[in-house]
Amino acid sequence: MTRALRVHATGPLALVQDLGRRGLSGVGVGRSGAADRGALRQVNRALANSDDAAAVEVTYGGLEVAVLDEGLWCCVTGAPCPVRVDGRDVGSHAVFFAEPGARVVLDRPAAGLRSYLGVRGGVAAEQVLGSRASDVLSGLGPAALSAGDVLPVGTPGDRFPEVDSVAAPDLAGEAVLRAVRGPRDGWVDDVDALVASTWAVTERSNRVGMRLGGHALRPARPQELPSEGAWRGAVQVPPSGEPVLFLADHPVTGGYPVVAVVVDADVDRAAQLRPGDPVRFRWIEAP
């Protein structure tokens, strides 16, 4: 009996993701992993997997997979979307069983961007440097999924799911991201303009970073910074003045001033924003 999924359609982008490669930034390897880490943890807990088990990150719906020889327990979290099994609506954020041969389809979410298809036992793609995460910047990890791919599924552990559904996030409202002032907040004329404005997510956004438009932060110094360490949630300001919020596949160094850092939990919310969505920032005190 083969525990596996065969990919029939992927939508705009479908990637295998776990919680990423920890502790390798010193040798130039970014962490990567799920753009919405909370959603990945949620789907794994619903299925009694380890928090770090790999799932399929689906950008803006369109995924269609078939269950091979052995039926699988599945769940979809992240951006709520219509989920169908052989044409039957089972919904997101609910645990369901897909029989051998069944087709599982994720349609476009009404709000949000990234949904996560988890399976009991986890997606058992080949590991690279201790992780199954697909890093679009470095190219490490499994390639983006395409029709015809077969995804092996791991053997479940001894624990069994204790819930049949989990809470779905409300992603329809304006996002307000909590942030602390960054180490280079004096490198723009008025860093408070970051929190005084409503920004728009531009189409020049991906898993590496989210570029914001609608306003510009003016540089306060003519000098250029040497490259410094970068991290998820950092808000850099390039010469254009349009801030860039680093997401999961950010580079390990950057040469533009970091004027703010979004708290880690709110980066998950940022990862669910689509081009055109409004976003605001709110200062909080550093702990």
TrEMBL record:
Transmembrane segments: none annotated. Keywords: ATP-binding, Hydrolase, Nucleotide-binding, Transferase. It comes from the Bacteria. The keyword Zinc does not apply. Residues 26-286 form the Carboxyltransferase domain. GO terms for molecular function: ATP binding; hydrolase activity; transferase activity. The keyword Transit peptide does not apply. Pfam families: CT_A_B. PANTHER family: 5-OXOPROLINASE SUBUNIT C (PTHR43309:SF3). This is Biotin-dependent carboxyltransferase family protein. It comes from Nocardioides ganghwensis.
